[in-house]
Amino acid sequence: MKILITGAAGFIGSHAAERLQSMGHQVIGWDNFSNYYDVSLKERTAKSLERQGIVMQRVDLVHDDLLALWPEDVSFVFHFAAQPGISQTSTFESYLNNNFIATQRMLTVLEQLDQPPYVVNIATSSVYGLVATKDESAAPEPASWYGVTKLAAEQLVMAYVRRGFIKGTSLRLYSVYGPRERPDKLYTRLIDCGLNQREFTLYKGSEAHRRSFTYVGDIVTGIVAVLNAADACSGAIINLGSDREHSTGEGIETVERLLGREIRKKIMPPRPGDQDRTMAVIDKARQLLAYTPETSLEQGLSAQIEWFKTLL
Predict the structure, then answer these.
(1) pLDDT digits (tens, 9 = 90+) for 212-249
(2) Which residues, including other chains, have CB under 8 Å from residue 275's CB and lie 6 or more apart?
(3) What is the pLDDT of residues 36-90, one digit of tens each?
(4) Which pTM does this prediction carry?
(5) Secondary structure, 3-state, 111-145
(6) What is residue 271's DSSP assignment?
(7) pLDDT digits (tens, 9 = 90+) for 95-124
(8) What CA–CA distances, in Å, run from 173 to 12, 71, 191, 240, 254?
């Protein structure tokens, strides 16, 4: 089966590309290689994917002629491409363009195809707001530009499904970590500071935040499970994450224990829009995808530390 992955050079997208390729599918990866973080990291990942037989292409969903570039006979699209995170330096326009407009332009292409592919939209628990402990029937209350625009993109995909233009589902991911995690994310920053004797920036109060920290391998298992449950999942929004909670403080202590050293910390003012608590309610994922996350926080962080050491 031919599968297109947008945002394939990114953190979760690259792991999904590898998994799908290993399952025997023909994978094409699109990425715009944005400078949101060090482009060389994405280029390194892209080269690794290419060595595994994955076709990587530099494509910008916002500006390129997507219809002219669209591959023939694509059966599934896994749509990871987005402006990620809660960054005080990113503008609302960047979130709007890369999350909503990019999705709209891709869907416009699908509308013109005789046999449009099934769309697996990658959404986020940030759509729930400051406390993400709800099931999929709860009203979203996003508190960040990231959450707002990802919710808008998700609803656009679902509108296309409701109108019968495509089949598809949307997966709301929870606090994913592991090898290739972005440099601005919690655990990569922590590990970097611990191994390189740097000061770690900690937002005031965030050590008490509770998260459904979910190992990337477990998340990808849930994502690719849609392939075997596509009809049952079409039209559904599904939470995907760990149903075990850990505080950010516990995460910091785990990294320090694994590294065998204490990490110096610099306390900064709270970050607007940051979630106080996430706790994935995954009953629907268990039912539709037979989803059961298995990796403990210590196991996942050990793997992430070993990966980070390969960058040094």
Answers:
(1) 999 999 999 999 999 999 999 999 999 999 999 999 99
(2) 125, 126, 129, 130, 131, 132, 143, 209, 211
(3) 889 999 999 999 999 999 999 999 999 999 999 999 999 999 999 999 877 667 8
(4) 0.95
(5) HCCCCCCEEEEEEEHHHHCCEECCCCCCCCCCCCH
(6) P
(7) 999 999 999 999 999 999 999 999 999 999
(8) 10, 27, 23, 5, 22
- CATH superfamily for 2-177+214-242 is NAD(P)-binding Rossmann-like Domain (3.40.50.720)
With beta carbons less than 8 A apart as the criterion, state whether 146 and 95 touch.
yes
Token reading at 123: 């959404």
What are the two backbone dihedrals, phi and then psi, of residue 33, each rounded to the nearest 5 degrees? 50, 50
Residue matched to tokens 């970097």: 192
The pLDDT, as a whole number, for residue 88 is 66
Active site residues: 146
Task: State the amino acid at position 248 in one-letter form.
Answer: T
Amino acid residing at 281:
V
**Which of 32, 153, 164 has its CA nearest to residue 103?**
153
Per-domain residue ranges of the chain: 2-177+214-242
Strand (E) positions, the chain? 2-6, 26-31, 55-58, 76-79, 118-124, 131-132, 168-173, 176-177, 200-203, 210-211, 214-215, 237-240, 246-247, 265-268, 277-278
Tell me the one-letter amino acid at 113.
Answer: L
Distance, CA of 177 to CA of 181 (rounded, Å): 6
Q: Name the residue among 203, 109, 107 with its Cα closest to residue 159.
A: 107
